[in-house]
Specification:
This protein is of the alpha/beta class and about 400 residues long. Helices cover about 35% and strands about 15% of the residues. The protein has two domains: about 10-180, Rossmann fold (3-Layer(aba) Sandwich); about 185-390, Rossmann fold (3-Layer(aba) Sandwich), CATH 3.40.50.1260. The protein has helices at about 45-55, 80-90, 105-115, 135-145, 165-170, 180-190, 210-220, 230-235, 250-265, 305-315, 335-350, 360-365, 385-390, 395-400, and strands at about 20-25, 30-35, 35-40, 60-65, 95, 120, 150, 175, 200, 225, 270, 275-280, 285-290, 300-305, 320-325, 350-355, 375-380. Helix 1 packs across helix 2, helix 8 (about 230-235) packs across helix 9 and helix 10 (about 305-315) runs parallel beside helix 11. The structure holds adenosine-5'-triphosphate (ATP) and 3-phosphoglyceric acid (3PG). Adenosine-5'-triphosphate (ATP) binds near residues 301, 326 and 357. It is found in: Cytoplasm.
């Protein structure tokens, strides 16, 4: 359910002077520089600031908790939240206390010493395997730290993990932060009550990752625009020889079924008419060819300019757009024009534009100054936004309802 029905927002929770546990999603991309872990994109930290600031200003004792990466065997220094704490301290201009564990005496000591308006960030929740098992004992150890629970970790609400599910189940005073509220409102609007025409733009690497979302979108949209490696499979399904392009052979029949369903539902499908090809993903330059004329030993790595112009016609008429997945190998310059072109075209459209996280959100930030700011909503959740669009009930949201 994509509404805030029966969910209390932080504004209405009794947080003054209380110990308030805020589950955030600080699972940020890291890069190693001179042996140190450096944050490559701090968007998820910035997006959580309104909730954190609100709690501090209202005199709460703020306990932040997050996962980072997927540690397999207990604590891993490379996945410590310490660099995140340092960035947060810079952004807030206050000290952020960092206990070296999220439960037990280390955490209790720091949390119980907090005064009103002070803040701490617990160490990576996934250093305990119990987090991903939704373990109730682990959740009760976290519950010992707090009086009030706030979930602002949209990127993690599709996970039934202890800090997003078992914990709020046992904390009576619970609700959502401003980011979760904003995400539910924007994604909810686009799937429950979109202004029409409603255009979905899907791309990325695999059809298999997006079958469920594709099928559910077909019930709601007017136009389906497909690009990226995903389009290769659809073009091959129509009998086009994609030569060395990345395609999913075992999804050709499924692609045909989706195209038939789209026809039944009167959904217009727009596929690339030209592509940028090269002999390898390492090639320094690409060549634009029509989709039916890909030379031997060449692969499609981006959509071409005519495809972009065709897609643009749909964007110009659209009133709502949902975009997930890049149009090509956008990380490499010769193959980035299609993705950046779609980003700029959507930024300039008058439609309500929503990006479903992941690579497309990163691409929009690289597309040029001011492009990202022009989107109506860029979700901080990849998997979570897709599952919400599919119409699934997400455990971290449902558990907050009264
Ligand atoms: N034609 C293509 N050939 C090869 N790789 C491609 C092509 N088109 C897109 N890609 C690659 O697909 C990857 C993105 O695919 P993915 O399905 O993961 O996208 P996403 O859903 O936006 O990301 P996330 O899973 O992080 O939410 C990018 O690394 C991109 O370079
Ligand atoms: O980055 C994400 O999509 C969220 O933080 C969830 O992370 P996960 O896929 O490792 O559970």
């Amino acid at each position: 359910m994509t509404t805030l029905d029966r969910i209390t927002t932080i504004k209405d929770l009794p947080i003054e002077n209380k110990r308030v546990f805020i589950r955030v999603d600080f699972n940020v991309p890291l890069e190693e520089e001179n042996g140190k872990q450096v944050i490559a994109d701090d968007a998820r930290i910035r997006e959580a600031l309104p909730t954190i600031k609100h709690a501090m200003e209202r005199g709460a004792r703020v306990i932040l908790a997050s996962h980072l990466g997927r540690p397999k065997k207990g604590p891993d220094p490379k996945l410590s939240l310490e660099p995140v704490g340092a960035r947060l301290a810079e952004l807030l201009g206050v000290e952020v206390h960092l206990p070296d564990d999220c439960i037990g005496d280390a955490a209790k000591k720091v949390v119980y010493d907090l005064r009103a308006g002070q803040i701490c960030l617990l160490e990576n929740l996934r250093f305990h395997a119990e987090e991903e098992k939704d373990d109730e004992t682990f959740a009760s150890q976290l519950a010992q730290l707090c009086d009030v629970y706030v979930d602002d970790a949209f990127g993690a609400v599709h996970r039934a993990h202890a800090s997003v599910h078992a914990l709020p189940k046992i904390v009576r005073e619970r609700g959502c932060g401003f980011l979760l509220e904003k995400e539910i409102a924007a994604l909810g609007k686009i799937i429950t009550n979109p202004d029409r025409p409603f255009v979905a733009v899907l791309g990325g690497a695999k059809v298999s990752d997006k079958i469920a979302v594709l099928e559910s979108l077909l019930e709601k949209i007017d136009v389906l625009v497909i690009g990226g490696a995903m389009a290769n499979t659809f073009l091959a399904a129509q009998g086009i020889n994609m030569k060395s392009s990345k395609i999913e052979e075992d999804k050709l029949a499924l692609a045909r079924t989706i195209l038939e369903k789209a026809k039944d539902k009167k959904v217009t499908v727009a596929l690339p008419v030209d592509v940028v090809v090269a002999q390898s993903i390492e090639s320094r330059e690409g060549k634009v060819v029509d989709v039916g004329s890909i030379p031997d030993h060449h692969m499609a790595l981006d959509i071409g300019p005519r495809s972009l112009a065709e897609f643009q016609k749909h964007f110009d008429k659209a009133k709502s757009v949902f975009w997930n997945g890049p149009m090509g190998l956008f990380e490499k310059k010769p193959f980035s024009n299609g993705t950046f072109g779609v980003a700029r075209a959507l930024a300039d459209s008058k439609a309500f534009t929503v990006i479903g996280g992941g690579d497309s959100a990163a691409a929009v930030k690289d597309a040029g100054d001011g492009v990202a700011e022009k989107f109506s909503h860029i979700s901080t959740g990849g998997g979570a936004s897709l599952e919400l669009i599919e119409g699934k009930k997400l455990p971290g949201i449902e558990i907050l309802r009264r």
